[in-house]
Amino acid sequence: MTTDLPMAALNIQQTSDNISCLPTELLIIIFSYCASEEPLGPTAIRGVCRRWANIADAVPVLWRRILLDNTKLPISKLQHQALLFLQRSEPFPLDVEVRTHDPERVLPILAPLLPSISRWESFTSVGFRDEHVDMKEWPLSSNAVSPIPLDRLVLAVHELEPEDDEGGSTADNTNPFFKYQSIFTLDGSMQLRIASLPSSAQLVPLHFTHLTISEGVLEPTHTNAAAILDLLLAFPVLRVFIFEGWQHDDEPLSYPTPLPLVSLPYLEVLHIRTTCFIRRLLSRLYTPRLRTLILAYLNVDFRVQSAVYEGDEGDSEDEAHDFSQSPWSDHATGMGLRSLISRSRPPLQVLEMDYSDMRTKDFRWVFDRLTDLEEFRIVASDMSNKVIDLLRPVRSTKDGSMATLRLPQLRKLHLDHCQRLAGDALVVAVAERTAFTDSSHIYNKFADVTVTACDQVETRHEDALQIILGPRFNC
Fold first, then answer.
1. Distance between alpha carbon 260 and the CA centroid of its chain, in Å?
2. What is the pTM of this model?
């Protein structure tokens, strides 16, 4: 029997009283066969007559196979189709199949179904890659002993390599985002290798709590601040965001439309690594719950377009005129951090800066406002003695009494390869702060001070810090 017969039966129904008089139980058997041979059969059945529509709507098993074919229908219609089948099939398990030649479309197509992935019994992809996954025993499945949520999304922005003559890929098999690695992983992640980020306009709100975007190094395919911010609009419950880029500065001086302001009310961890548009990213985020900020490998020795004068407070030259090997990226990082803190007033507890720097005026501005910061780590910084002096108690110029203490909750200080920092200045700042906080019941005391490979910190300075801090000092 061919697959055309079930659809032919639908046409016969209009003229045959025999079919219209069949009992419901027999019609259900026929409809089930139709659905097994033709995935869109249930929708065709519903359009024949009211009785058939009522039967189809009352039999969830007819809707459990979901075929989303982007070669025949646009994304908007596929999303509507996915929701219809998802609702009608409740509570049965689902067999999900996606057909598309464009990997950028996979996430928009599957978006309506992802919150219900525990119901998936199998997943099949055809076109951009061929894959079949039996998900009955996966940790994501409701059948698993301890089902885990699908809460992590990893997007690798790479140029997509053509397949070789034998059907394999020219991609490096050691790459974690190798083309034929499964889209869904055992740790509750979904990962896609794509050439560009999808638009938020194509996505329904996604309920991932962890998002990682990575750019392939030195590839012709890369992303920009506008695309990242636009995508973030589709992640209303995001808690962790990691962006790993590379240092290309091809951002236009101005966008035809303003960059969106993205509200991430639940974001707690923000990790940005290796990019030249740090200012544009940080200046358009609202993160009122941010607790951990990690900035890594942002220093560059060339002019960064996103650091050009924009007229914001603090954009003027640094009055300290301290030495810097990366003045343009220092400016961009500092101004981006100012904007983020001004808008969000986050209860930041951890600030880590690895090969990422700011101007002295930006350090002062930031330290004056991070009243909840408990841990400050900085690696390979050009920070001067003026910055470490900011940790000393600030005393009144009139009578010498204490007025304020910057970073009043600071407990951990890690300084690594800070080559411009003088040992004498470090000892004075730590000694004064330690004497003050150790005798106070209001401010946090140092719990850990670590100094590593700072050229101007000599053995005599280390000995002095050991006396001041005792076991709290690590060298």
1. 17
2. 0.86
